[in-house]
Amino acid sequence: MNAVFEVERLNKTFGGLAVTQAVSLTMAPGDRVALIGPNGAGKTTFVNLVTGHLKPDSGVVSLAGEQLNGMNPMQRVQRGLVRSFQVTRLFPEMTPREHLALAVLQRQGRTGRLFGTFWSMPEVLEEIEALLRTLGLEGAADHKVAEIAYGQQRLLEIAFALALRPKVLLLDEPAAGVPQSETPRIESALAGLPADLAVLMIEHDMDLVFRFAQRVIVLAAGTIIFDGAPGEVTKDARVREAYLGSYADDRSAA
Amino acid sequence: MNANHPASVTGQVVKPRFSASADWIGLAVILAASVVGNLLFPNNLALLTRVIGIVMLVLSVDLVTGFCGVATLGHAALFGAGAYAAGIAAAHFGISDPFAMIAAGAVGGAVAGLISGLVVLRSHGLGQLVLSIAIVNLFHEAANKATSWTGGSDGLTDIAPSPLFGVFGFDLWGRTAYVLGIALLVIVFFLLQRLSRSPFGMLCRGIRQDPIRVAAMGASVKKTLLKMYIISGAVAGVGGGLNAISTQVVGLDSLSFTLSAQALVMLVLGGTGSLYGAIIGTVVFMLFEDFVSAANPFHWLTIMGALLVAVVLFAPRGIFGTSAQLFDQWRRR
Ligand SMILES: Nc1ncnc2c1ncn2[C@@H]1O[C@H](COP(=O)(O)OP(=O)(O)O)[C@@H](O)[C@H]1O
Ligand SMILES: [Mg+2]
């Protein structure tokens, strides 16, 4: 297996509380992995550690064979490690089309340009159009993000990440906050992700997890307690124990 | 990656939200306003030229505050640096060609912008505000001490710009300076309009709305802001240079905290984040100031204060921003 993303024995404590303990993980291009676990298990912290938003106490993160330790979040993104946020982070006064323009221009190293606009760059417009179509966002393309539905904002988060053409995509609860009626659209967006992209998705909605992932990793109290096929996860004794009491809360909260 | 490549191009043409004709209307309005200004104040062109210089300062504040979200109370450092650079070029180096003096002003302002940016951008939020005040005070003190270069508190004199194109002298009537000012404003406005729509301009607006999101797409927030600070410095420096040419003297007040604070007030009055807001705010503030201080020299500050309170409370987006919003609502109905 040629790994595109490798995490070796990552550790992090917050004031004595071990939030990440010896977490290791390897992913190949095209992998679809779901990272699950009760609230407070350390899932978001894990994403923050590998993207460089937090500094681990120890451990190694590498992307396509290159060590990322010591790089800032920006440099990691430039190398192809891209994340989405658990709570949507978009530019409220910009339209989806402008978001995607910015992402495409950034990938091409053209956001420093002082003159010209993306409106006169046919190849950029084409790429935006294709992304809008893939994600079903054509109708919302020219409305300010603050004025479009939350479900569409979540789709835009995914489109925005895709426009950067990542090697590894980390999705932090892509369906969080989306009304039940709109989750099928998120799900089909996830199903349509590029085949050679490695995707790690954090998600509470177990139906979504089972349909999306070939592999499930369960994190509890900062430790990986299960790493295997989706069909096995509910049978695992430690997973059941970890979720006892908290799983019911999670579902209602998710 | 299949999802990223367009399989085919849709025939549909998407139109930008701005139109080229609106740009030309904007420039035409500036030109028309300057003709009207000339007719209304034929004996006070010096005031109008000063307004144009300050418009450049306020546009410069708008670039970092309105576009990028970095608040500053020290932007006169950039304006004053431009004024002194142009003045020193003329008084000490015999560079008296007005265009060369303007160029010196732009460079001086850009350097001051670089220095300010390097200091201010080390901090965030309130810290930036404090550092910007510290910078303008340091610049002020430096100019005050370096008397052999700047004339200290007496001001820098002996600035005698040579005639424009070797023909039009800078006379007492101030007509040449006024025309030069309008020409510079039109050029600066045109360039900044381009800039605000450019990829760089979009990135700056992104930073104002969510810097963490910008970093998460792989762009450098700090480098971008520093670049904008330098551009902003050049714009303020052109205004300072114009002021040096027009008044033929540069004083410490051009490097003051007071001017910095007034510039921010003018921007808020007109509306942040739009070039029109910066221009309208400056024109209204300065003409109102001139009018009210002549009519009521004792209470003009109170009246200005009341005006500002009224705008912030009832038109929080400023005169231009609120008008544009009302117009938009009316049109959508
Ligand atoms: N910056 C922080 N400082 C201190 N504790 C934190 C910080 N961020 C997260 N934590 C703690 O780390 C644990 C894991 O949090 P998080 O990674 O957000 O969990 P999850 O995403 O799995 O719900 C929680 O107990 C949380 O309170
Ligand atoms: Mg979380």
Question: In words, what does this structure look like?
Answer:
Chain A is α/β, with parallel strands linked by helices and 254 residues long. Chain A has a domain at 5-89 and 166-253: P-loop containing nucleotide triphosphate hydrolases (Rossmann fold). Chain A contains 10 helices and 10 strands. Chain A has helices at residues 43-51, 73-79, 96-107, 122-135, 150-163, 183-191, 206-212, 230-233, 237-243, 247-253, and strands at 5-14, 17-27, 32-36, 58-63, 66-67, 81-83, 168-172, 198-202, 215-220, 223-228. In chain A, the strands form 2 sheets. Chain A has a 6-stranded mixed β-sheet, with helices on both faces. In chain A, strand 7 (168-172), helix 6 and strand 8 form a beta-alpha-beta unit. The longest helix of chain A is centred in the middle third of the chain and has 14 residues, at 122-135. Mean pLDDT of chain A is 91; it is low at 247-254. In chain B, helix 8 crosses helix 10. The model of chain B is unreliable at 1-13 (pLDDT under 50). Chain B is mostly helical and 333 residues long. Chain B starts with 19 loop residues before the first helix and ends with a helix. Chain B is globular. The interface between A and B is large, with 54 and 36 residues. The structure holds adenosine-5'-diphosphate and magnesium ion (MG). Adenosine-5'-diphosphate is lined by residues 14, 19, 37, 39-45 of chain A.
Summarize the helices and strands and which ones pair or pack:
The complex is a heterodimer of chains A (254) and B (333).
Chain A: E1 5-14, E2 17-27, E3 32-36, H1 43-51, E4 58-63, E5 66-67, H2 73-79, E6 81-83, H3 96-107, H4 122-135, H5 150-163, E7 168-172, H6 183-191, E8 198-202, H7 206-212, E9 215-220, E10 223-228, H8 230-233, H9 237-243, H10 247-253
Parallel strand pairs in A: 3-8, 3-9, 6-7, 7-8
Antiparallel strand pairs in A: 1-2, 1-4, 4-5, 9-10
Helix pairs in contact in A: 3-4, 3-5, 4-5, 5-6
Chain B: H1 20-40, H2 45-67, H3 76-93, H4 98-120, H5 126-145, H6 147-150, H7 175-197, H8 199-209, H9 211-216, H10 221-247, H11 257-270, H12 275-295, H13 300-314, H14 318-332
Bound molecules: adenosine-5'-diphosphate and magnesium ion (MG).
Adenosine-5'-diphosphate is lined by residues 14, 19, 37, 39-45 of chain A.
